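Hello,

Following up on my earlier ticket. Below are the two sequence lines again, exactly as submitted.
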Amino acid sequence: DVKVTQSSRYLVKRTGEKVFLECVQDMDHENMFWYRQDPGLGLRLIYFSYDVKMKEKGDIPEGYSVSREKKERFSLILESASTNQTSMYLCASSLFRGPAPQHFGDGTRLSIL
Amino acid sequence: AQSVTQLDSQVPVFEEAPVELRCNYSSSVSVYLFWYVQYPNQGLQLLLKYLSGSTLVKGINGFEAEFNKSQTSFHLRKPSVHISDTAEYFCAVMPSGGSNYKLTFGKGTLLTVNP
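Thanks for your patience. The regenerated structure is below:
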C-alpha cells in the first residue's frame, strides 16, 4: 500500500513565523500535491509538482511556497504565517501524470495564533 | 475551467436505507470523474472513478456511480448503508485532454448514517 506521511498531525504557530509542513511518500510516485481543506469550501489546490525541483502553482498559491529536492519529499512553506492560513493541510501523491488515483496523507491541522 | 457542484452539504439516513449523493459538473472539455471518501480524522481515499466506457462504475464498499453526459452528472449510490459509511464524500473532475491534470473538487457531502 502507498503511504503518504505528513510530519505533524497538529501544529500551532504564531503570526509572522515561517512554517514548514513536510510530506513524504514511499511509492516512487512522480506527482505530489498540497491542498488546504476548509469547512464548506472542500479541497483547494495550493501547489503541485510533477518532478524533482519542479513546481507549479495551483488555485491558491498566495502566501505559500514549496520545495521538492528529492522525489519522495514535498514541503509546503508558509513564508510569514497569518491567521487566515489556519486550516487543515493535506498532501497527496500519484503515480503518473493523468487520471491516476491520488493517495492522501492524514493531514496537518495548523493553527496560527 | 472546470467546476463541481455537490447539491447536498449534509445527508442524514438510517442504517440499511439506500442513499444517493448528487454531483454535477461543468466543463468545456471532456473530463474524468472521481468520488473520494474521507473518514473522520483521516485523509481522502478513492472510492471509484470514471475514465471511459461503461457509464455505470462500481467502487469499493458497495458504492456505484453513473456518468450521465447529457445531464453532466455523476451521482453516487449505495443500496443499503452501514454505520461505518458515515464520512464526508467528495466528487472531483479532471480534464481528459491536454496537459492539465489537476483535480477540481466539490465542497463535499457529509453522510451521517443513524442506527
